[in-house]
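Input (structure):
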């Protein structure tokens, strides 16, 4: 079996082992497993029963792992995207007036368009149309976003008087637990201790328990009965298919999905120095997105937290498959998963974010027509809490600056079209 895995996944070729890939998958799973609870709560705001949302979230994560593992062969974890789930519940349903069943139909149609793009020459055309400065900026912006999420999740920063953010107090058990766990995590990481992130999660959980932050009574809480929730599969409604509202929703969601994932997948395959994996990984992402509509959840994306699995040594699809198999049983172990505290996960997000920030050295600071749109992407992704908004503003500004200094020929025709589409999408949201 080991020989089969080596041949299929190219373990030797990728300089990895079965043990390392499975450990990385385990780390990745614990880093993203929060999505089960968080995504389900956000989807329930659309009127979807939370039991449906839980099953849909888990099913989409499993299917995404299988697609990325067997087709993409990359250590990328496909899970319902944060931000896009909010767009699903608060924009498509609450603002635009679609039912949650109709919003699932929007996801399916947007995913089908995404699949068309990914499996045709449009994928390469769009990828080549995006300049390297913007691609690098997306990676750096995502890194900064991860660091911010980690700092907030660990209580190290939060809203303050007269300031956007203020430092947390060490008198807070969450902050103290996070600080101690971070010191442990960064030492283990810098010393390159095998399985350092997994050790961090285990010991971080123990530290949190010592400070009284874990209620073991949660272990007795009932899980979800899958038999009662599988009805969410195929619950899409195309009753509004011919309406303007439906197609405005499809246009907006498709723009976000295609270009957010171009940036995410590019950044992640470059993170492991395997750019040749981009095409198939992007295709796997598109099919997973389309499947999300059928399975009953907001679209999956190439999660930012995939970098945690990569930093733990993941290099192939075996990492994704490992996380996928763990998601399969997650519905029965939600109480156990829920006892893992934020203080055990936050340090990992901070470290991974720091690693991704290193890509800023690839920006040419001498050419501000290249650098300034990139810097805006880097700033806006964390400041707006929206990967899509950060990307959109950078993509709109880039051709504007090139035209202003007479270098309009440096911008591909495709990028002009992309910038116009992002602008139109922005106007739709503002007017709406």
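Output (sequence):
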């Amino acid at each position: 079996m080991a020989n089969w895995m080596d041949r299929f996944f190219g373990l030797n070729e990728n300089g990895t082992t079965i043990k390392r890939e499975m450990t990385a998958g385990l780390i990745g799973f614990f880093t993203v497993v929060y999505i089960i609870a968080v995504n389900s709560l956000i989807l329930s705001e659309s009127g979807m029963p939370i039991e449906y949302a839980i099953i849909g979230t888990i099913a989409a994560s499993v299917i995404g792992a299988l697609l990325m593992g067997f087709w993409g062969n990359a250590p990328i974890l496909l899970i319902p995207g944060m931000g896009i789930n909010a767009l699903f519940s608060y924009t498509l349903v609450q603002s635009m007036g679609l039912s949650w069943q109709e919003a699932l139909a929007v996801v399916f149609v947007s995913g089908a368009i995404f699949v068309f793009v990914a499996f045709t020459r449009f994928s390469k055309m769009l990828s080549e149309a995006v300049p390297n400065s913007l691609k690098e900026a997306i990676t750096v912006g995502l890194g900064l976003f991860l660091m911010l999420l980690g700092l907030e999740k660990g209580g190290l920063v939060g809203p303050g008087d007269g300031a956007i953010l203020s430092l947390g107090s060490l008198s807070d058990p969450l902050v103290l637990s996070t600080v101690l766990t971070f010191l442990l995590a960064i030492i283990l990481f810098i010393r390159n201790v095998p399985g350092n992130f997994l050790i961090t999660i285990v010991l971080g959980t123990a530290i949190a328990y010592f400070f009284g932050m874990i209620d073991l009574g949660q272990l007795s809480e009932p899980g979800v009965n899958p038999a009662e929730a599988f009805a969410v599969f195929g619950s899409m409604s195309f009753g509004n298919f011919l309406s303007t509202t439906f197609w405005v929703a499809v246009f907006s969601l498709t723009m976000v999905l295609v270009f957010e994932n171009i940036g995410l997948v590019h950044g992640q395959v470059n993170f492991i120095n395997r750019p040749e994996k981009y095409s198939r990984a992007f295709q796997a992402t598109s099919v997973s997105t389309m499947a999300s509509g059928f399975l009953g959840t907001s679209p999956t994306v190439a999660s930012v937290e995939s970098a945690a699995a990569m930093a733990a040594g993941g290099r192939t699809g075996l990492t994704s498959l490992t996380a996928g198999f763990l998601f399969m049983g997650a519905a029965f172990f939600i109480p156990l998963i829920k006892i893992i505290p934020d203080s055990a996960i936050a340090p990992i997000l901070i470290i991974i974010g720091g690693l991704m920030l290193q890509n800023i050295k690839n920006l040419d600071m001498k050419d501000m027509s290249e650098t300034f749109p990139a810097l805006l992407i880097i700033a806006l992704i964390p400041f707006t809490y929206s990967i899509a908004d950060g990307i959109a503003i950078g993509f709109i500004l880039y051709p504007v600056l090139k035209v202003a200094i007479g270098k309009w020929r440096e911008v591909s025709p495709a990028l002009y079209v992309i910038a116009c589409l992002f602008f139109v999408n922005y106007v739709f949201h503002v007017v709406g």
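Notes: Residues 1-431 form one domain. The beta strands are 78-80, 157-160, 163-167, 300-302.
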